[in-house]
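Let's practice the habit of predicting before peeking. Look at the sequence and jot down your guess about where helices and strands might fall. Then scroll down.
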Amino acid sequence: MDTNEPEVTEEVEATEEVEEVIEDSDDPAVLKARIKKLEEKAIAQRERTKIVKQQLKKTEDKKGELDNADFALLAVKGYENEEDIEFIQDKMQKWNKSLREILRDQDVIDKLKGMKIERDVKSAMPSATKRSSAGQLDNLDYWITKHEQTGELPDNFELRSAVINAKMNKSNPTLPPWRR
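Done guessing? Here is the structure:
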C-alpha cells in the first residue's frame, strides 16, 4: 500500500502543475502541448496504479493457500504432519491471514501442541497386547482361574465349553499328569 501513496501524490502534483501552467501562459499552443503532456503522464500513472493494484490483489488472493516456501517454513517449524498442515490452511482461509500471522497466534500454537501430544500418546499406546484390557475376556486361562475362584462361567458358549472340558480333564484320573 505504501507504493500507492507516492503515486497518488504525483497525480495530485500533476494536476497542480496544469493549473500553474494555465495561469502562467497565455499562448494556446503552449497550453495545449503542456496539457497533452500532462494527460499522457496521468494516463501512464493510472496504468502503473492498475498494475500495482493487480499485484496486490494477487497477493491477497494467496492468503489461505500454501506454496513451496510455506511448506518449507512449516517443515522448519516442525509441522510436517498432514493433519497440522490442514489445520493451518483451514485457519488461513477462515481468518484470511498469512501463514506467518497464523503461526504467531497463540491459540493456533496451543492447538498444534495439543494435536502433537495427542498423536504421541496415541502412538505410544499398545494396540493389541496381553496387557490391554480387552485381551483378558476371551483368554481360556483367565476363565479357568476365575471359575475356580468364583464359580462363574463366561457367556460365550465355546469358551464356556472349553472351561468345563478343562475342569473335567483336571479331575480325570485316567489322563496322565502332563495332559491335565
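How did you do? The longest helix spans residues 28-62.
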